[in-house]
Specification:
385 residues, Neuraminidase, disordered N terminus, Glucose/arabinose dehydrogenase, beta-propeller fold, 6-blade_b-propeller_TolB-like, mainly beta, Quinoprot_gluc/sorb_DH_b-prop, 1 helix, 6-stranded antiparallel β-sheet
Length: 385
């Protein structure tokens, strides 16, 4: 590690490796640099600030109006970053979590009107009968302790599976939250409207069911469902300018997806997929079927998509409206250009930075990245010309 101007920089080698056009053909640039030095990507020169490298499996990032940053750790702790430094103090009164496999303390997000209502929303794997299940809660913060904690919803049924909890949360600014739920490793759940697994769900901010949800009047269907046929969406973003909801979700071996998620639609898993089983055997022999949506873009081989944000900030004018997607297995971030709902191209950035769990745009307009092994919180800063 090196220190400059009071900011810690990791001496980790990074590469800006590739661009892909709409045919998926990659153009390779083998230039290698280090965090803290200027990185020349296709449309932006930038540096990477390391706010901390002392996190333990970070998962979600939330920004408080007073400048503090809260970072969830999967084991069930919430760390505080203040004035660019990781504090020893941690948030108290965090709920007990089902810390098994991919389960644990997951996403965190501050209500858009936090200054007036004080609500912070969490997703976590809650222990219960049958194992654990993705749960959405809200709480308030008094000093460094949670108060007024309320569980709003749990995806049912709970399962003893250690995989596919989904659980990203976004607000639409119209009184609703969207959140994702993985199919918990049982493929058939995703097509079954009688459970919450393998779905994107929509609630009113108080946890009640909106009357205009698509399956409210469908016999046997869970009324919280917004869309179905998902495998494990761990990236979710709502475009307030267009009213569009997008997800990034894990495929199996191949077939990670970027989807425009629309009301009542079926996204195909496991009936259609561009992936195969981890042992190399086929899951299905079709990649398209009438009544099932195609991804806007998919990755083969898988990059293990995790975390998704859309650049709306003037900090990155050449990236405006692009999506930034984290990659766990392939340890980079992907900048994806979409025009009129159609894929244009993507660029691989920060290759070998670590397992990227979360990417988000902060209220200061900068893009923040949380990585596992090492557990870092990074900030992308445009370089002056």
């Amino acid at each position: 590690m090196t220190l400059r101007n009071g900011i810690v920089y990791a001496s980790l080698a990074l590469s800006v490796l590739a661009c892909s056009d709409k045919n998926g053909t990659e153009k390779t640039n083998t230039e290698t640099t280090t965090v803290g030095a200027v990185i020349e990507s296709e449309k932006l020169k930038f540096t990477v600030d390391t706010l901390t490298d002392k996190l333990d499996n970070p998962w979600g990032i939330a920004f408080l109006p007073d400048g503090r940053i809260l970072v969830t750790e999967k084991k069930g702790e919430i760390r505080i970053i203040k004035d660019g430094k990781l504090l020893d103090e941690k948030i108290e009164n965090v709920p007990a979590v089902y810390d098994h496999g991919q389960g644990g303390l997951l996403d965190i997000i501050v209500h858009p009107d936090y200054a007036n209502n004080g609500w912070i929303y969490l997703s976590y794997a809650k222990p219960g009968e049958g194992g654990g299940g993705t749960t959405i809660a809200r709480t308030k913060l008094n000093g460094n302790a949670f108060t007024d904690f309320q569980d709003l919803f749990s995806a049912k049924p709970f399962a003893d599976s250690e995989v596919h909890f989904g659980s990203r949360i976004v607000f639409d600014g119209q009184g609703h939250i969207f959140f994702s739920s993985g199919e918990r490793g049982t493929k058939e759940n995703a097509q079954n409207l009688g459970n919450h697994l393998g779905k994107v769900l929509r609630l009113n901010e108080d946890g009640t069911v909106p009357k205009d949800n698509p399956f409210v009047n469908t016999a046997g269907a869970k009324p919280e469902i917004w869309s179905y046929g998902h495998r494990n969406p761990q990236g979710l973003v709502y475009d307030k300018a267009t009213g569009e909801l997008w997800d990034a979700e894990h495929g199996p071996k191949g077939g990670d997806e970027l989807n425009k998620v629309e009301k009542g639609k079926n996204y195909g898993w496991p009936v259609i997929t561009y992936g195969i089983n981890y042992d190399g055997t086929p899951i299905t022999d079709i990649t398209a079927k009438e009544g099932m949506e195609q991804p806007v873009w998919y990755w083969v081989p898988s990059i293990a998509t995790c975390g998704l944000t859309q650049v709306t900030s003037d900090k990155y004018p050449n990236w405006k409206n692009n999506f930034i997607v984290g990659a766990l297995a392939q340890t980079h971030i992907a900048r994806v250009e979409v025009s009129n709902g159609k894929y244009v191209k993507h660029e691989k950035l920060l290759d070998k930075v670590g397992r990227v769990r979360m990417v988000t745009q902060g209220p200061d307009g900068y893009v923040y990245i949380a990585t596992q092994s090492p557990g870092m919180l990074l900030k992308i800063v445009p370089a002056s010309n």
